[in-house]
Design goal:
The structure holds two protein chains of two kinds. By secondary structure, chain A is an alpha/beta fold. Chain A contains 13 helices and eight strands. Chain B folds into two domains: about 180 residues, Rossmann fold (3-Layer(aba) Sandwich); about 120 residues, Rossmann fold (3-Layer(aba) Sandwich). Helix content of chain B is about 35%, strand content about 20%. In chain B, the strands form three sheets. Chain B has a seven-stranded mixed sheet with strand order 3-2-4-5-7-6-12, sandwiched between helices. In chain B, strands 9-11-10-13-14 form a five-stranded mixed sheet, with helices on both faces. A two-stranded antiparallel ribbon of chain B has the order 1-8. In chain B, helix 8 links the parallel strand 10 and strand 11. The chains are: A alpha/beta, B alpha/beta.
Amino acid sequence: MALMTKSAVLHNGQSDVSYDTIETKLPFRKYPGDRFTHSDLGLNVADIGDIYRNMLLQRRFEERSAQMYGRQKIGGFLHLYIGQEAISTGSVYALKPGLDSVITAYRDHGIALALGMSSNECMAELFGRKDGCSKGKGGSMHFFSREKGMFGGHGIVGAHIPVAAGIAFAHRYKNDGGVCVCYLGDGAVWQGSFHETLNLASLYQLPVIYVIENNQYAMGTAVDRAAAETDLFKQATSYKMPGSLVDGMDVFSVCQAMRDHVALARKGQPSLVEIRTYRYRGHSMSDPGKYRTKEELEAKKNEDPILRLKSYIIEHQLITNEALDVLDVEVKAEVAASVTFADESPLPPLEAIYEDVYTQKDFPFLKI
Amino acid sequence: MAELQLREAIRAAMVEEMDRDEDIFLMGEEVAEYNGAYKVSEGMRDRYGDRRVIDTPISENGFAGLGLGAAMNGLRPIIEFMTWNFAFVAMDQLVNNAAKIRYMSGGQFSFPIVFRGPNGAAGQLAATHNTSVEALYSCFPGLKVISISNPDDAKGLLKSAIRDDDPVIFLESEFMYGMRGEVSDAEDYTIPIGKARIAKEGDAVTVIGHNKSYWRAMEAAEMLEADGYAAEVIDPRTIRPFDWDTVIASIRKTNRCVIVDESNPFASVASEVAFQIQARAFDDLDAPISRVTAKDTPAPYAKNLIEYYLPSAEDVYRACREVMYLD
């Protein structure tokens, strides 16, 4: 295999000693696009409608967020998930709500909405309001919902990766049957926490699935400018866990892959999934995206996961065009209502600054 | 009362709590098969098995974060660092996650977790193995910081720390693990977090010291006793939250204060304590507040230099005489 050839090349010209080649049987699976149908996944028409709506809600929510950011209703950073919705939705349809846990990095609006957190609480959080999902203390990067099994929204690249192992550890310790899905970006793979944790997860056989959302760019740095090995899923071999490569623009491929990996996790086998995707917007709102060409962006837009699902629905005559239009109107109305809700939600009161730091209610904060 | 070594008192606290609550587990380097680098967890793996006493690879950032995730999802981990010097690679987990996730989630998640291990100077180990971290971690709202000086406080406060629903940084000492002391055998013995202990009453000067510095304070108090002066010695025990009431009441009585702190001086615990005393009891002071700290350098290796680097009883004694205007 490739490693052998490469090692021969790398060693060429070195001192005249014999060397062994590494032979590894890589337990990789590939989940290309257009490989799975809805019937393969056992999804009925109602499910397809839900999946389409779930993805569309994320898209419309974020389009409105970008608009509200422009109007300075939203502060700080705003990292949009637009283009990656097949991953959040596809994996949510592989999980057991109320049992399984999810944790992600700072590009977290998509998965939060996919898990069923309301547009209202999410938009109010972006607005920094009292009714936000984190009471206006977390903002865009820190959406949390204990009720929905959403363990955040984390702003430091790689910091949540060990936390995911701990969430999974607790599932196993309590023997509750739950698993933890941890999303991370392609950039986070090169944090030490990723490698420490994959080793721990494998060593302890934790029910966790690490999902690399490879959107090709760590902020503005292309994968091949950051990675010695650009096939990120191959990191799984170092930690003796199964790995997969998935087309992230096809929600059915994602869903099938995640179901397989969740099944592994339920048996106590951690694993690594690389899902190749693309973000259509910049890293954050301030990013003009000069590190990529317009041609590349346009070509990727032809793979838009929502349009792709829509074509599939029409092609297979599952839902009529008119019904999809009605869905679009409904979703837009929901998002518009969330803007009104957020606007009308009060600012957090100043005394709230001392709340939620500790569980202890009377912690004696220094005030001089 | 039973006489225990400090390590035995810490172990007794963990064992009593783990017997009581199945959700508590101990994780760290060498805690299980090796029975603890400093034998604190000796016998615990035999008692609880591999499920609850867990060895880790040398991945402090990884297992600190693992502990936090487990706490977030309903367990009550005790994470042992072989020393706090090795926890610098886990600071991201402690500072960004342990201290802040609860806040950023609007209080939805809590972290009932204890990070414990030896802190501060440990002998001729040079600069990287002699760091005091109490001021550092006390900088971060969201954490509680405890630093103990004797077996009784170790047991009572560790039990409270394990029961606390907030993350606790629990600081021990390599030098003190073998120290013997009376430990209360009262059933379910706990000491409240955030309460200082007046170790010795007096009216001449207030001397404040935690962990090993507490013993330097006590030694200096004895020397003052020989001179005919009664120092009041306070062991704060908890650094965050600090028991200002006990300290201020003492200052009102003695009107003088020396703070002993084996950290480097800049932005140390001594700095904050001195600031708070002048802000709260300025009119009660008859002399400037003094402090005795480590030198403002990295810790050296050579025996004479490391001895010179750390606060000594003589340093504390001299500082006391100075604020009492005796010399």
